[in-house]
């Protein structure tokens, strides 16, 4: 596979292609426009004031995190049940999991900042928030399992099982937290679903943010997946090179 | 088919008996883990420093002590396998992984049940909670079903850590978020059993259903997944 260079270098094997560079440029321009829309072109909210601008980041990051975990689950299933157990699916799952953890972290931070400004508190024991934290920790665990070592197939199988178990775990966590909170109804501040009436441009900005962040997700996963492919190739090449060295020593 | 299921069950029985016998002879659970849980219960009392609060939160403290101790028990149950590469030997022998998983889980359920019995007795003494006969029936049911969930997840992730040699530190990170529903359901049901915070017995039983679903789901899921998680 890598007969010329056992160790692929970034120079001869870049992770960018013309298509991914185009995508990257699109994301960059989209982010610039989103910043202008979010900070300058849209009005303040009647109730929330300028705080609403956080939503243009918070909602897209939360969306990307959930999307990432769905992609991880689907690609893990494709690896597990695919006939060839293709490692490409495993790498997409891993790349998507990494991106998901980053965005879930960002979403928690922006959410709690928004909560501080709107509710007066960084944290509410709301079922959605609580489930989000569990999702975050569960996928941090998923990434740790990917890092356990062993062969690539072993990594793929282990992490695939953990990703699929998470699909079972998360609804149960959510359901139990909902039940738990339904018994403790003392806190009924503004519901955290952002159900405020939005004017046209604000809604557009929010949806535009979601679209741009989705493209950013695609761009990040694309590159990360290619980096993971190169890292796997280095692993394989490293073993190959070490074997070759030992053979030449013996001769 | 029959042959396979028979062998899975006989493997499960053999593993469970072996684990319990090792525990019976070594007394690690009784001599080391139980005192640890006992001191945790006392430390909770130091930290909260109020009889009223202690009584109110006793169910949660009991289950927290159970969860923390379950980490040690799970690690112990796989340490006896990895000590002289017994897990590898089991794999080489072609023993059904589902059988190993079920055996490990059953042994864990039994150990946790005994453990909870002692912790509940301790909470009656230390935290001054009251337990009626009806509450005791609810509590035994809750403990049994909660243990199935904890044991299934524990065996699954403990096996993963043991197979990946020396990475047992991963266990709390994987296990604690996964068993959060067990903590919630078992604590609420135990509140009803103890009758704290005005909770009635009837309010406790719906949580039993959640524990049963959790145990069934991960008992089944674990039986399928254990082989993949522990293979070399």
Could you explain the architecture of this structure?
The complex is a heterodimer of chains A (251) and B (232). Helices cover 74% and strands 0% of the residues of chain A. With 251 residues, chain A is mostly helical. Chain A has one domain (26-184, 197-250). In chain A, helix 3 (87-118) packs across helix 6 (200-250). The longest helix of chain A has 51 residues, at 200-250. Chain A is globular and about 80 Å long. In chain A, 34% of the residues are buried. Mean pLDDT of chain A is 85; it is low at 184-192. Chain B is mostly helical and 232 residues long. Helices cover 86% and strands 0% of the residues of chain B. Chain B contains 9 helices and no strands. Chain B is globular and about 55 Å long. Chain B starts with a helix and ends with a helix. In chain B, 47% of the residues are buried.
Q: Could you say which overall geometry of chain B the principal axes of the C-alpha atoms support?
A: globular
Instruction: Give the tally of structural domains of chain B.
Output: 1
Major sheet attributes of chain B? none
Helix/strand order of chain B = HHHHHHHHH
Mind telling me the C-alpha Rg of chain B?
18 Å
Considering residues with a beta carbon less than 8 A from a beta carbon on another chain, report the largest interface and each chain's count: A-B, 28 and 26 residues
């Amino acid at each position: 596979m890598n007969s010329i260079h056992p160790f692929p270098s970034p120079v001869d094997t870049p992770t960018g292609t013309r298509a991914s560079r185009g995508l990257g440029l699109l994301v960059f321009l989209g982010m610039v426009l989103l910043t202008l829309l979010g900070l300058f072109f849209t009005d303040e909210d009647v109730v929330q004031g300028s705080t609403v601008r956080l939503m243009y980041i918070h909602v897209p990051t939360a969306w990307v995190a959930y999307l990432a975990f769905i992609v991880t689950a689907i690609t893990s299933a494709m690896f597990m049940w695919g006939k060839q157990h293709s490692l490409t699916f495993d790498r997409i799952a891993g790349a998507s999991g990494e991106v998901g953890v980053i965005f879930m972290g960002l979403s928690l931070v922006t959410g709690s900042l928004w909560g501080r400004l709107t509710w007066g508190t960084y944290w509410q024991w709301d079922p959605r928030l609580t489930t989000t934290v569990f999702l975050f920790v569960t996928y941090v665990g998923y990434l740790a399992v990917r890092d356990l070592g062993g062969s690539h197939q072993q990594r793929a199988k282990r992490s695939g099982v953990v990703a699929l178990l998470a699909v079972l775990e998360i609804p149960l966590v959510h359901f139990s937290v909902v039940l738990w909170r339904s018994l403790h109804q003392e806190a009924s501040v503004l519901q955290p679903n952002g159900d405020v009436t939005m004017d046209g441009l604000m809604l557009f900005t929010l949806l535009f943010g979601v679209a741009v962040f989705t493209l950013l997700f695609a761009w990040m996963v694309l590159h990360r997946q290619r980096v993971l492919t190169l890292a796997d190739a280095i692993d394989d090449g490293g073993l190959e090179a070490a074997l070759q060295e030992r053979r030449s020593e013996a001769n | 088919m029959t042959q396979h299921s028979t062998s899975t069950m006989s493997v499960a029985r053999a593993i469970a008996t072996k684990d319990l016998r090792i525990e019976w002879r070594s007394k690690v659970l009784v001599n080391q883990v139980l005192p640890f849980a006992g001191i945790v219960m006392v430390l909770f009392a130091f930290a909260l420093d109020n009889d009223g609060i202690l009584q109110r939160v006793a169910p949660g403290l009991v289950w927290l002590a159970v969860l923390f101790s379950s980490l040690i028990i799970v690690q112990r149950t796989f340490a006896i396998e990895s000590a002289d590469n017994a897990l590898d030997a089991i794999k080489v022998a072609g023993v059904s992984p589902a059988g190993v998983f079920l055996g490990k889980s059953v042994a864990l359920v039994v150990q946790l049940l005994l453990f909870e019995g002692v912790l509940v007795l301790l909470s009656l003494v230390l935290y001054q909670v009251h337990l009626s006969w009806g509450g005791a029936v609810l509590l035994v049911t809750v403990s049994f079903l909660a243990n199935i969930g904890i044991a299934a997840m524990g065996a699954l992730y403990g096996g993963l850590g043991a197979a990946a040699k020396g990475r047992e530190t991963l266990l709390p990170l994987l296990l604690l978020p996964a068993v959060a529903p067990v903590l919630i359901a078992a604590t609420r049901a135990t509140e009803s059993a103890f009758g704290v915070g005005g909770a009635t017995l009837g309010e406790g039983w719906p949580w039993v259903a959640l524990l049963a679903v959790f145990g069934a789901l991960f008992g089944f899921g674990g039986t399928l997944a254990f082989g993949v998680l522990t293979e070399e």
